[in-house]
Amino acid sequence: MSSTTIQIISRSKYYNWLVKNLFSSWVNTVLTVIALIFLYQVGSFFLNWAIFDADFRYNFQGELIIDRGFCSKNIMPGEYGACWAIIFARWNQFMYGLYPIEEAWRVNLIYALLPLAIIGILFDKIPFRKYFIYFTFIFPFLAYFMLYGGPGLSVVGTNKWGGLLVTLFLGVTGIGLAFPLSILLALGRRSKMPIIKSLCVVFIEFIRGVPLITLLFTANVMLPLFLPDGVNPDNLLRALVAVTLFQSAYMAEAIRGGLQAIPRGQVEAAQSLGLSYWQTTRKIVLPQALKIAIPPIVNTCIGLFKDTSLVLIIGLFDLLGIGRAALADMTWTKLYYEVYVFISLVFFIFCFGMSRYSLYLEKKLKTDNS
Amino acid sequence: MSTDQVIHLEKVNKWYDDFHVLKDIDLIVNKGQKIVICGPSGSGKSTMIRCINRLEAHQKGTIVVHGTELTNDLKNIDLIRKNVGMVFQQFNLFPHLSVLDNISLAPIWVKKMPKNEAEDIAMSYLEKVKIPEQAQKFPGQLSGGQQQRVAIARSLAMNPDIMLFDEPTSALDPEMIKEVLDVMIQLAEEGMTMLVVTHEMGFAKTVADQMIFMDEGRIVEQASPDEFFNNPKSDRTKLFLSQILNH
């Protein structure tokens, strides 16, 4: 078969698809045309603004942009074009906050190792998975040492942390700590022991009944009251406690949904074989329940990752906080669109990643073994 | 008390809230006995055998298995469950584990057996129930009859000396009932002590040495199969037999 015939065949395949899906009736055709016009208008406007008419580091005259006055289009009324120079100028703060720039390699190292630390949990059929899992458990200590400092490294207080570092720290650590806690809460809520059960119910319902902002304020103001004198945890740690408790309550409910979907017969069969409660839970109930609960669990993770931006109200500079600080700077004032579009893009990359992962798992588990 | 006596129920009573499920149940099972229990649904027959391995707790009376009394003491419960196997109507295989892992799980975790030894045992029981070739499959890939045979192998792998069967063939298509019953008959011939809740009267006539008929939480009639089928004493039994034998 010559290449032209292949082209014709594939072209007719596309043609059929187009006719069937976009132009099957005149209503469909009108809607298709309207949608195309709309997409063209919005899309061309956005692309022009974001790319073709935009300044990056240099303006149209080829000068390095050092303040707002250098932006080609921003000062002219009725002319549109992004001035991305603010992102370049503030790049270090977006990535590290006020972390000393000569120590920023420590943060970069942790950014680079983070994927290696979670890959073993996310995928079960990778080579050397065992070693990746070992690394997962070493990673928090390594990250603490590298980021905070210790013997051989200068100490960088968490008040200097900011930007993506704070966002990822709260998101990843919050989710990581909340996961085991939420399993215990979910099991506790289904426990037959009345005291444990009511403790878990009260905890979950209380946390779920309170906005995260309130929890952040509460943790910020009240946590020192519960701790012995002289122990004064820093702001970031307080926020982490609030975020972890919040996430664990939501995740516990997602896991409880999974637990409830496991037929009673599974537990009875395990019991009749002589397995203890914990053996039954670990080997029979949780593996099945967590599989079912994956979509809602990922859902709460996405929610939490975005909610970390609320910490700016207790004086922490996460990605959004850094962006607002950049806007407060007279040099760059009024470049709202650029800053917020950039921040949205960063959040979107992480949340979309989680969402795709959840879809991948759902598909995988559907074909897997049952 | 004879030394052959392995299960002894005395004046056992159980309630679900207000509902009196078991009423003064007395039952003695000797080693090697095969007891078939039948009765209308809701008569308490399943509940009775589920009390024997404490899947259900009784509220009054005593249940003694192998000289150990069933109380809230978890140690006694564990001890009894190790010696009493159970097969369920819905098979209750673990869907996330392969057939081999289903069977070797309890030997590994409860008996702390090394993995290869447990898998060897699992294979030997799979051969016994005649499906060794299914070892690597998952339960969802097997037919109902095959699943139930795996469930029997899973129980046997713990080497119990009493087996409880809770309507083992009720969830099966007719053509698969025989393959499961054949395994159970073989087990009976090997001298296993068995308590079987079933309506398979052909099976009962072949293997049972005691028939029990229950209704409304009581044991209404207990007799040898010969007497039970040919000369039942209570009217309730007669009615029940006429209903299930002539349908």
Q: Globular, elongated, flat, extended or rod-shaped: what is the shape of chain B? A: globular
Strand/helix succession of chain B: EEEHEEHEHHHEHEHEEHH
The total of helices of chain A stands at: 14
User: What proportion of the residues of chain B form beta strands (DSSP E)?
Assistant: 25-35%
Main sheet specs of chain A:
none
Radius of gyration of chain B: 18 Å
What this model shows, in words?
Chain A contains 14 helices and no strands. In chain A, helix 9 packs across helix 10. Chain A is globular, with a radius of gyration of 26 Å. The mean pLDDT of chain A is 88. Chain B is built from 9 helices and 10 strands. Chain B is globular, with a radius of gyration of 18 Å. At the A-B interface, helix 11 and helix 12 of A face helix 2, strand 6, helix 3 and helix 5 of B.
Q: Which secondary structure elements does this structure contain, and how are they paired or packed?
A:
The complex is a heterodimer of chains A (370) and B (247).
Chain A: H1 3-21, H2 26-52, H3 85-89, H4 91-96, H5 104-122, H6 129-148, H7 164-189, H8 194-208, H9 212-226, H10 235-260, H11 264-272, H12 277-307, H13 319-328, H14 336-367
Helix pairs in contact in A: 5-6, 7-8, 7-10, 7-12, 8-10, 9-10, 10-12, 11-12, 12-14, 13-14
Chain B: E1 5-16, E2 19-30, E3 34-38, H1 45-52, E4 60-65, E5 68-69, H2 74-83, E6 84-87, H3 99-109, H4 115-128, H5 144-156, E7 162-166, H6 174-189, E8 193-197, H7 201-207, E9 210-215, E10 218-223, H8 225-230, H9 235-245
Parallel strand pairs in B: 3-8, 3-9, 6-7, 7-8
Antiparallel strand pairs in B: 1-2, 1-4, 4-5, 9-10
